[in-house]
Amino acid sequence: MYNRLRVKKITPATFGLWVVICLIINFFAFAPKLSDPLAGFFGFGRGLDLLLVVGFAFTVYVLFRLYVKIDEINQNMTDLVRALAIHDEIKLEDIESELKEKKE
Asked: Where does the chain cross the membrane (predicted)?
């Protein structure tokens, strides 16, 4: 993760977010009893139950974001291929007209 930040593939804010998420997960993984009061506040019996629900919700959110991003990339590729095909078709017509002129 740090290497991606170093080569500017991610922003410092994104790096900070992932560091905070990793620290929180590790904190509650090594001290699960500390999450019990927080779980009780949200109506869960154990802290682990809360962590699993939050983790599942986060996973669904990330999958949705990935789906949207892949769909955008797919649309961009379609638009690019369409534009290149139209551009090449115009060039082909110009070449064909030049060949006809040379024959005459």
From this structure: 12-30, 50-68
Looking at the domain assignment, is residue 68 inside a domain?
Answer: yes
Range of the domain at 62: 31-103
Is residue 55 in some structural domain?
yes
Residue-wise pLDDT for 20-55, tens only, equals 988 988 888 888 788 888 888 889 888 888 888 988
Place of tokens 């999450």: 35
- Kindly report whether the global pTM for this prediction surpasses the value 0.85: no
Q: Which helix (H) or strand (E) holds 34?
A: none
Q: How far apart are CA 91 and CA 79, in angstroms?
A: 19
∠ Cα 28 34 37 (to 5°): 120
- Measured CA to CA, the distance from residue 34 to residue 25 in angstroms comes to 12
Q: How many domains does the chain have?
A: 1
